[in-house]
Amino acid sequence: MSIEFTATVLGSARIGPNRELKKAVESYWAGTLDAAALESVARTLRENTWRELVAAGLDSVPVNTFSYYDHVLDTAVMLGALPERVQGIGSELDRYFAAARGNETVAPLEMTKWFDTNYHYLVPEISPATTFSLHPEKVLAELEEARALDVPARPVVVGPVTFLLLSKAVGGSAPLLDRLDEILPLYAELLTTLADAGAEWVQIDEPALVADRTQSEIDCAKRAYDFLSAVSTRPAILLASYFGDLGAALPVLASTGIEGLSIDLTVPGTVEHVAVVPALASKHIVAGVVDGRNIWRTDLDRALATLASLMGSAGTLAVSSSCSLLHVPYTLDGETDIVDPLRSWLAFGAEKVAEVTVLARALRDGTESVSSELDQARAALESRRTDPRLHDAAIRARLEAGVSVDRTPAEERRRAQAVRLDLPSLPTTTIGSYPQTTQIRLARAALRTGQIDETEYVSRMQSEIADVVALQEKIGLDVLVHGEPERNDMVQYFAEQLSGFAATSNGWVQSYGSRCVRPPILYGDVSRPKPMTVNWSEYAQSLTGKPVKGMLTGPVTILAWSFVRDDRPLAESAAQIALAIRDETIDLEEAGIRIVQVDEPALRELLPLRSKDTAAYLEWAVRSFKISTSGVSDDTQIHTHLCYSEFGEIIDAIVDLDADVTSIEAARSHMEVLDDLNSVGFDLGVGPGVYDIHSPRVPSVDEITESLRAALKAVPAERLWVNPDCGLKTRGAAEVERSLRNMVQAAAALR
Ligand code: GLN
Ligand code: ZN
């Protein structure tokens, strides 16, 4: 029934090679672009993407991977599952954006991380009142658009099991998989519709099946694919798995009537698992040998060996990226600052597509047909393997000699710090950043383009710092910060100064909606050529008698928001970064800084998808934090900041960090975090955020007092700090001042 294809990718980026979609949707939101013009930008982007994929030689091209905001939200629309509160909103497009971003009257859907990537999806809300219905217009339109251009189009949709597992049950507690039978008929109808519209294959994404799943969840998956494969008129089904190993779900899915299965072969162990599932011998295996979420050039020889080892176990074989190319930048073209040899080690989206086609050609016509490509890949790999920047003997020797991470017991540290800091009870502070004003951004841009020189830039930043210090003194905060005006981003700022990192000029990747990030590339061993933050902190401290907190980003967060080495365990890179941060804390201390905060907002983000891997992760993550923070004397106070209020698996790790003070997001969860911390015996300083910084609303003194009273039920006053939930960089100056005044007043009244 199906025509097997040989070369594909599981999805492509959609924000535009020059962020055209970002600019267009933001103009639409601002009211300066109309819906028709937005639609035309979108159509052009889709067309260009498909044409490039076809021209590169793919014989099956994913469609419906375009999205105005998010593909999970698109799925909710397709299933008629937008929340009740947006139903009344005028046009379909505005309803969609209201669900995504909210408006004056309706709250948006929650947003959360797409598995262990840095992409964030919107969490569909499903209530007992939700009645599902099929709305296939978007996928049909994109299919027709592509077919009209002679594109061998393969529509992609999020699968029913993943959709329900990722959604949130509201107003009812039954597991959402209980609703599977309501949506399966809609998927069945969709399949028939797509077949009628000419689709030969459909890709159904079920990444949720690579995480830990219960037997009953796996049974649901079986039921779903038995049912869908029994639909009489339908395209061939490619069930897509990525980001991990299907484990126990693999033989179960293979036993259903689906025609194809994609396997993420960049994950250790998956090749071996495929070999022991006999049912795969009748399936089309889409082999994800080209890493779709990191930026390294593929080791083509190794990929060919993997493909060869699959030959015996698969019915037929296609070459593919391991996941959608949503997670990597478009192309290396235009990255003029990235030069050889580093450049030769990299492959962004377009280069990955080329690798897929080279591998497919090798399978079809033999390796001789691609010998020059293989030679090039080998040479690049060899130069990477032998580059001295990847083998810094000094750093390795330091780590091998062993770094002591012991600190004096917390109680003794507390006494030493109390003497040196002399703070009132319920000390007030902030998390680090103050509003990033246009002035600040302009100064940074002017420095970049050479309009102003370094001296002028430093003096402008110093005047920002002076303003922020004066403001904090005026408000009456106890522990001050310098405000981070010099930081474009809390990770990029450090990556730009550490050896072993490279930056891209146009390497944008969608983070959520129209928001993009440009992750640094960690390619080498990490060292710190010179102090990174000391001058700024020292300057701020020179302006006030109150303690100014030094402000650093921790190793886990730096790794989580970068493209990382794939030739070394992450733990090793973490230890190297940690050593650089450790040196920075010591330099800050020597410069007279009495408190240093090491932020780890991404500590939870790198948690592995499978719980069997959790302990090992947490061990190196905690150790890297301790390497970073254990080099200072007892009377230097270490703070950390964590950006979430649900701990789950990391609660014990927070105790193990042994930071003197931990500030943590808590306002939205009503201080529940404190009980969680108590339950594991946490007895250090803690600053649960007393107000939510995600909204411009100014919290009243009463409200903050309420929060603090709630906190005091769980934590004795000696351990309690008073601070907002997170940094203030996205807020306006006026609201920040008023909020902090109220916060200081609430703390003073309680003392
Ligand atoms: N110190 C950083 C700031 O205040 C922390 C940001 C974060 O937690 N993401 O901006
Ligand atoms: Zn935060």
UniProtKB/TrEMBL annotation:
Active site: 694 (proton donor)
Biological process terms in GO annotation: methylation
InterPro entries in the cross-refs: Cbl-indep_Met_Synth_N (IPR013215), Cobalamin-indep_Met_synthase (IPR006276), Met_Synth_C/arc (IPR002629), UROD/MetE-like_sf (IPR038071)
A GO molecular-function annotation: 5-methyltetrahydropteroyltriglutamate-homocysteine S-methyltransferase activity
Binding residues annotated for L-homocysteine, in chain numbering: 431-433, 484, 599
Cofactor note: Binds 1 zinc ion per subunit.
Catalytic activity, EC: 2.1.1.14
UniProt cofactor(s): Zn(2+)
Domain Cobalamin-independent methionine synthase MetE C-terminal/archaeal residues, every copy: 426-748
Xref: SUPFAM superfamilies: UROD/MetE-like
Residues reported to bind 5-methyltetrahydropteroyltri-L-glutamate: 19-22, 113, 515-516, 561, 605
Cobalamin-independent methionine synthase MetE N-terminal domain ranges (all copies): 7-311
Keywords for the protein's UniProt record, in alphabetical order: Amino-acid biosynthesis, Metal-binding, Methionine biosynthesis, Methyltransferase, Repeat, Transferase, Zinc
Record-listed L-methionine binding positions: 431-433, 484, 599
Residue numbers binding Zn(2+): 641, 643, 665, 726
Annotated catalysed reactions: 5-methyltetrahydropteroyltri-L-glutamate + L-homocysteine = tetrahydropteroyltri-L-glutamate + L-methionine
Function: Catalyzes the transfer of a methyl group from 5-methyltetrahydrofolate to homocysteine resulting in methionine formation.
Stated family: Belongs to the vitamin-B12 independent methionine synthase family.
NCBIfam families: met_syn_B12ind, PRK05222.1
Name recorded for this polypeptide: 5-methyltetrahydropteroyltriglutamate--homocysteine methyltransferase
Phylogenetic classification of the source organism: Bacteria, Bacillati, Actinomycetota, Actinomycetes, Mycobacteriales
